[in-house]
Amino acid sequence: MQHRVETMSLEEKVGQLFTFYYCNQNYAEAAEMCIKQLKAGGMFLDVQSLDNPEQVHELTGRMQETALQEGSGIPLFIAADFVAGAGCKLPGGGAVHFPKNMAIGAAADEQLAYESGRITAVESLAMGVNFNYSPVVDINNNPDNPVIGTHSFGETSELVATMGTAVIRGYQEHGMIATAKHFPGHGDTNVDSHLALPVLPFGEERLRQFELSTFREAIRCGVDAIMVGHIAAPALDPSMLPASLSKPMITGLLRREMGFRGLIVTDGMSMKGVTALYSQARACVLALAAGADIVLAHPREDREAVEMVDAVLEAVRSGELEEARIDESVRRILAVKEKYGLTPERAATAAGAMKTTLLNQPASREISSRLAAQVMRRTGEPARWEQVKRVRAEGAKWNLIAHSSLTLFADRLEESGAIADKRLVDANEKLPEAAGEWVGVGPLLVAIAHNKRLPDEVYEQLRELAATSEYDVVAVHFGSPYDVGDWPELPVLLMYDHAPALQETAAQFLNAAECRR
Questions:
Q1: 97 annotated active-site
Q2: Residue 486 among the catalytic residues
Q3: Is residue 516's pLDDT more than 50?
Q4: Is 2 part of a structural domain of the chain?
Q5: Under a CB-based contact definition with an 8 Å cutoff, are residues 471 and 490 in contact?
Q6: What order do you get walking across the sheet with 419-425 strand by strand?
Q7: Which of 51, 194, 302, 327 is labelled catalytic?
Q8: What pLDDT band is residue 351 in, cutting at 50, 70 and 90?
Q9: CA atoms of 117 and 111, how far apart (whole Å)
Q10: Fewest C-beta atoms under 10 Å: which of 58, 307, 406, 470?
């Protein structure tokens, strides 16, 4: 398809460089405007646009039909953040929701990591999603990181590289484009780039040997896209521009020095790491001038989408952006579309009813369960756990205080007869107070669900309850392991994430039969 560049208008070429956020579960006017009027090359399905496989398939089908018949005539990249399986963003269910990356890292099983990627690809493609903005290959070695948390596979470059490349191969060998993110590395930061500009304050040697190492491995294994984050690295570019707008970072480092030949995608251009400095429209121009191939644009209204495209067109017409720079990215985009079968001929042939037999299969759910079984860790003194087992063996039941996102965990314990009473709260900060009201009633089980760090006070209060209660107090932690210290007085069952398979596994362990082992 690359030969088409010679016959495309400037408007058609610029359209290919834009992937627009979409936030509606139905095909609506915003999609029509982006695809038909602006000739968009891609659409990104935000969480608000997702419900169940049938709905997603209908939406993506309409988008592709419009692109072929009334838009550019070239199939769309349809992207999503399916970072933990095709089911992780579907409130209506219908596809597998895998344990998040840090749990996969804790399992440390390369084959299961690959299988999670394979199944995600098969299920995503069945729904019409062909481009996954995953996996995160940031090395999360900073406990105070406010955004990456359990999205990372772990805190060592070796673990992240091994698990990340396994997932990439799983995606791409089964037809879905993978994206390694967030270049040059968002793991050792204490600022969320959605809210401000994070800065990597480290020297050049440290950045090359640590942060960049996982991206080198992703490139080595053939990843077809890398997402550049809104992160400044002054040792590599003293201008303090976010990497997403930096020519030394994108063209100089990633493209020329590291030898990456695939697609360079920006992180969402509405994030404060960019918009604190520039408008989205201006940032789109700067990102393309720096060497990005695709800008991930998030218009709040139709007018903003038009402004962003017009800004790039005007930059080309004025000579600020060379048309050759645009052509280079369009050729790269069309090459990847052709590689993954996103050609008009193949897209027309592939259109049709969704293959439901590819979704949510028992064998696929079993992979998720096997991962979950390898994740679970116990902390605290062994004697405390032995006491818990003895009490449960004698027939005592738990009183459960749990975060409201853990209904599956609570239901499974209730079904097994392991709990006497339960109470769900809508914030983890409310757990200690609720637990305090029940601490003298009987053995107490406190279930926490949080992907980032919680305030230390939450755990201090739970530890105090455990130290003073005449009954056992046990915590089940479905979240970041950085929260959990070495607390002898508070046994903790560490699950890393609250994916369904992890909730099932924790409940199985804590029911009467399992806890006697």
A1: no
A2: no
A3: no
A4: no
A5: no
A6: 377-379, 492-494, 473-479, 444-450, 398-403, 419-425
A7: 194
A8: low
A9: 10
A10: 470
